Amino acid sequence: MAFDTVSANPNATLIHWSAERLRECGARVDVQVGDEPGKANLFATIGPVDRPGLMLSGHSDVVPVAGQAWSSDPFVLTERDGRLYARGAADMKGFIACVLEAAPRFARAGLRTPLHVALSYNEETNMHGMRQLAAQLAAAPVRPAACIIGEPTSMQVVVANKGAAGYRVKVRGHSVHSSLRDQGVSAVEYAAEIVVFVNALQKRLNAAARHDGFEFPHTSVHVGRIEGGTAHNITAKDCEFLLEIRALPGTRSSDVLGEIRGYCDSVLLPAMRAISADAAIEFEEIFDTPALDERGNVYLAQAIMPLCGHASAGRVSFGTEAGILQDIGVPTIVCGPGQIRVAHQPDEYVEIAQLEACSRFLDVLAGRLAKGELPLGH
Questions:
Q1: Catalytic pick among 24, 30, 36, 61
Q2: Per-residue pLDDT reduced to its tens digit, 44-94
Q3: Same structural domain for residues 279 and 180?
Q4: Average pLDDT over residues 163-185
Q5: Domain-terminating residue out of 288, 309, 336
Q6: Does residue 241 lie in a domain region?
Q7: Which of 91, 123, 293, 351 is catalytic?
Q8: Residue 61 among the catalytic residues
Q9: Which end of the chain is more exposed for a tag (fewer CB within 10 A), N or C?
Q10: 3-class DSSP string for the chain
């Protein structure tokens, strides 16, 4: 927790520290330099390197603490009443700590099926770290047979999550004095028309598809922030807002975005450009991560659920890196200690009992991998 790996900061110090710990127990470790200064991924293998194994994966970055009221230093692990408080305790350094603590036991177990450990960067922003690592794994002669991502699920196996995509929408109008508003194009007002269309689109999405395994059982669209204009008596030249799409498995965010673009191109832009040829509406992708579809991991989930004491699988609405791995043919589930409701919040914590449950689960995995008894393929 003492490594301040807020996504805006480098994570390389944590990655190299983890790499050294894994090398000490005999793991073969590859540190992949990231596409931003000071950023890196880690991929390590304990056991045979000539065959596919089970990958345990976690993101090393955390969200900011600025503006949050913490009861203790967010980068100093603090124990109170059976809980460990720190930024990332639940999301998801608790899982990473359990994996690193268990690594020597995996090494001593004499694994017949290898264990892979992956740590990524920028999961909380654009997921470039896992995209970069997944591209390397897709091209490797041996890639993992399956993966468990340790996001906080209270140690329940999760087989599906929604996709997550974010876009910066920039509306450019034409500025005039508001007394001559018919000669201007208000970027704020046209942005508002897009927001109204998004709200109407949500109602259509609610009627189009439903998956009761999710807390909100529909694909969602949401405008989270908007800014524009300069004064009350000037038509706004510029307006910008952030659009989020969380798509159900089987739905692509790009399809939903296409409806919004189509409305802008066919309805709004012609009206705007009838007044000013320079008017524009631009969509800038910030991130786009595919959903995790349970049709690709049923066999893996059935093998893992008994090992962590759960008889049924769950589904979550928050985004994970799992869909990226599924897209390169690595069946993936999500299962880790802690609760997502405390993630990103002040006084984020993980229960010590959850870490203990995770450690027991990892020890069971070590035993199964040592005997080659964990079925990872179909």
A1: 61
A2: 999 999 999 999 999 999 999 999 999 999 999 999 999 999 999 999 999
A3: yes
A4: 97
A5: 288
A6: yes
A7: 123
A8: yes
A9: C
A10: CCCCCECCCCCHHHHHHHHHHHHHCCCEEEEEECCCCCCEEEEEEECCCCCCCEEEEEECCECCCCCCCCCCCCCCCEEECCEEECCCHHHHHHHHHHHHHHHHHHHHCCCCCCEEEEEECCCCCCCHHHHHHHHHHHHCCCCCCEEEECCCCCCCCEEEECCEEEEEEEEECECCEHHHHHHCECHHHHHHHHHHHHHHHHHHHHHHCCCCCCCCCCCEEEEEEEEECCCCCECCCEEEEEEEEECCCCCCHHHHHHHHHHHHHHHHHHHHHCCCCCCEEEEEEEEEECCECHHHCHHHHHHHHHHHCCCCCEEECCCCCHHHHHHCCCCEEECCCCCHHHCCCCCCEEEHHHHHHHHHHHHHHHHHHHHCCCCCCC
